[in-house]
Amino acid sequence: MRISPLFAVWMLGLACAGGLHAQDLAKVCHATSSYDLTIQPGRLVFDRAGPAPTRVELAPGTLHTDGQPVPLNDEAQDRIDLFQQEVRALAPRVKAIAQHGVDLAMQAVQAESDGLGLDPDTRAELGRRLAANAAELHQRIAASQSTHDWRGDAADQYADQVIGDIAPLLASALGQQAVSAAMSGDLQQAAALRDQAASLASGFQPRLQRRLQVLRPDIQALCPDLQRLSVLQEGLRASNGRPLNLIQIGR
C-alpha cells in the first residue's frame, strides 16, 4: 500500500520547502490510505489505481463506487454526511500546519545563510527570493483541493524549484569568497569556505527536521479527528461488497 495519510497530504507542501512530508503524519497518527482525495463542491472524491473500488464518491446522503450507486439506510446516510463534514472541517487545519511549516523552512534557510558572511547585496537578494518562494508555496497550499497536487514528482518539482532558485546564489557567494581568499594567499580560508559549503548542503536537512518538530503538537491534535473518520466509515461498503477502508489507523 502506498503510504499517504488521508486528508492530510497537503502536508507535502512542507516537502517543497525541504521539510516534513506525508510519512511524518503517518508516524504520529498512524493514519494511512491508498486513496487520493479531492474536495469538490458538494462531494468528496477518493481515487486510486487499484484494487477496486478505484473511485469512491461521497455526496450528501449518497455513495457511489466505480460509478455504481450504493444503497444506504438512514444510519449509513448519517455516517456519510458526518464523514464529509469532518473532512471539510479538517482540511483548513491541515493547510494551516502546512503554511506554518513553509514559514519555518524559509526561516531555517535564512538562519543558515546568516552564518555565511554574505555581502549585503547577496543577503538582500536571498531575502527577496525566499519571500517570493514562500509566497508561491503559500498560494499553492491555499488553492489546493486535492492530494494529487502534492504526490510523487509534483512535490519533488516544487522542492527542486525552490532549491534551484536559492542554491546557485549561495554557491556563487561562497565561491567568490573562496576565490578572493585564495588570490590573497589565504589557502586555509579558501579550504574552510569549501568545507563550509559542503557542510551546508549535507547538514541542512537534519537541522531543518529538528526545527519542524515544533509542528508535532499541531499534528498530534489531528489524530483524534482521523480516528473519528475511521470509526465513521465502519460498516460502509462498496458496490462490490468490500469495506471502503478509505482510511486505516494502525498501532
Short synopsis of the structure:
The chain is α+β, with helices and mostly antiparallel strands.
Attribute tags:
251 residues; two-stranded antiparallel ribbon; 8 helices; DUF2884 family protein
Could you outline the blueprint of secondary structure elements for this entry?
Elements: H1 12-16, H2 22-29, E1 31-32, E2 36-40, E3 43-47, E4 55-59, E5 62-65, E6 68-69, H3 74-114, H4 120-143, H5 153-183, H6 187-211, H7 216-220, H8 223-232, E7 248-249
Antiparallel strand pairs: 1-7, 2-3, 3-4, 4-5, 5-6
Organism: Dyella jejuensis
Protein name: DUF2884 family protein
Keywords: Signal
Termini, distance in Å? 16 Å
Uncertain spans, ≥5 residues at pLDDT below 50? 1-21
Computed over alpha carbons, the radius of gyration is 23 Å
Largest sheet features: 5 strands, antiparallel
Tell me the structural class: alpha+beta
Would you kindly provide a written description of the structure presented here, covering whatever features stand out?
This protein is α+β, with helices and mostly antiparallel strands. It has helices at residues 12-16, 22-29, 74-114, 120-143, 153-183, 187-211, 216-220, 223-232; strands spanning 31-32, 36-40, 43-47, 55-59, 62-65, 68-69, 248-249. The strands form two sheets. It has a five-stranded antiparallel beta sheet, covered by helices on one side. It has a two-stranded antiparallel sheet with strand order 1-7. α3 (74-114) runs antiparallel to α6 (187-211) and α3 (74-114) packs antiparallel against α8. The model is unreliable at 1-21 (pLDDT under 50). Keywords: Signal.
